[in-house]
Amino acid sequence: MTSTTGQPGVGPQTTEALDSFAAELDAVRRDTMARVGLEDARYITRLLWVIRGIEAAGRALLLTTPWLPTFWLGAALLGLSKCLQNMEFGHNVMHGQYDWMNDPRFDGKSHEWDSTCSKEDWRHFHNYMHHHYTNVLELDRDFGYGMLRLSAEQPWEPRFLTQAPYAIIVAMLFEWAIAIHNMEFEQLRTKREATQARIRALWPNVKAKMWLQIKKDYVLWPLLGGLVSLVLGAGLLKGLLAVLLGNVLANVIRNVWTFVVIFCGHFTAGVHTFDAALVQGEHKGHWYLRQILGSSNISGGKLFHIMTGNLSHQIEHHLYPDMPARRYAEVAPRVRAICQRHGVPYNTGGMLKQLATVAVRIVRHSFPGGERTLTALQRPVVPH
User: Fold this and answer.
1) Any bridge partners for residue 273, and if so which?
2) For residues 132 and 286, is the Cβ–Cβ distance under 8 A?
3) How far apart are CA 231 and CA 289, in angstroms?
4) Nearest 5°: phi and psi at 375?
């Protein structure tokens, strides 16, 4: 057998073992998708109305009670609605998990979520590049997002000394970082002309989506808040500022929560990366193996899983991205048992534990050296 250099291979090592591994995971998908139907449709429809109701309550409180204690409740409710809209609704709908309903409200290609990142860019760099090439170096730019050094395989540069405080800033502005992610600004230093051409091609769409969000949250709603405040006798400026700051706070809540969930699902201790040379013609078992070794779960209760968009089951999401996410808790025990039988690590832990390992990874790789994450995938030699 041949392999790339790096960490020793783990899991199935022969064609027969890879076939068995893939077949068992295929069976989990087949059995679960056969049960998808009315119950899932009712769930996602109820969720949509819950999100709309929470958003309406939050915006109403911000509009009618500037600077009163209920201002904080309004901002919190609006932030909660944005978390649910992005995580459990938008992200999952845009993966096509509910396309089978043939309902335009849940159509993965046309849904426009509450984020500065356009749906077209998201489907390209996330749904395709990240999910197909999970943790493949130089192909999956979601490993560090082109901003952070997270393994020893990436050469160290002095600029990485500031990546810990930089990560905190990115967390607060996460939707904006994701919005420009597909333009690959970090490539300007090495591929200037090609990157400039890419930016010129993508910028009009990015700018349009950014302006849509700016206009909604930072222009129209604040103006409406100012007018309502004026009518109520509190003055135009007071209401305008209350709604503006409330929307800022709600977006920061959403951004930080999204950042934490995503980083705890991808950059914990024990994460693996892979050589691009092994992707071409890879066995389906290898594809499954990459999804598991490149992902981490977060343990918690039902409400916690809903708040994460069920991305607390990141392993199952990477295995079955178009499966309704509410089903991940159901399939997780079977997936974990399959991993155990085949000697594949199943990375899971509580939120604080996983977040701590993410923080350690970011800080450690601010300096030279660090953990080597490149993992050998043993590719059986095909007999001639």
Assistant:
1) 374
2) no
3) 61
4) -120, 135
**Integer Cα distance of 301 and 370 in angstroms:** 34
The model's pLDDT over 82-105, given as tens digits with 9 standing for 90+, comes to 999 999 999 999 999 999 999 999
Q: What angle do CA 33, 260, 53 make, to 5 degrees?
A: 65
Element at 348 (helix H, strand E): strand 348-349
Distance CA 374, CA 384 (A): 29
* 112 three-state secondary structure: coil
- Which residue(s) pair with 136 in the sheet? 274
Contact yes or no for 129/141 (Cβ under 8 A): yes
Q: Rounded to two decimals, what is the model's pTM?
A: 0.93
Query: pLDDT by residue (tens digit) across 197-255?
Result: 999 999 999 999 999 999 999 999 999 999 999 998 888 999 999 999 999 999 999 99
pLDDT digits (tens, 9 = 90+) for 299-347: 999 999 999 999 999 999 999 999 999 999 999 999 999 999 999 999 9
The count of other CB atoms within 10 Å of the CB of residue 222 is: 22
User: Measured between alpha carbons, how far is 263 from 261 in angstroms, rounded to an integer?
Assistant: 6
DSSP state of 133: S
- Give the side-chain half-sphere CA count within 13 A for 253: 21
Q: Tokens in use for 302?
A: 């039902």
| Total number of residues shown for the chain | 384
Q: What Rg, from alpha-carbon coordinates, does the chain have?
A: 22
* Sign for the pseudo-dihedral over CA of 356, 357, 358, 363: positive
Return the structure tokens found at 239. 């209401």
Give per-residue pLDDT as tens, 157-203: 999 999 999 999 999 999 999 999 999 988 888 889 999 999 999 99
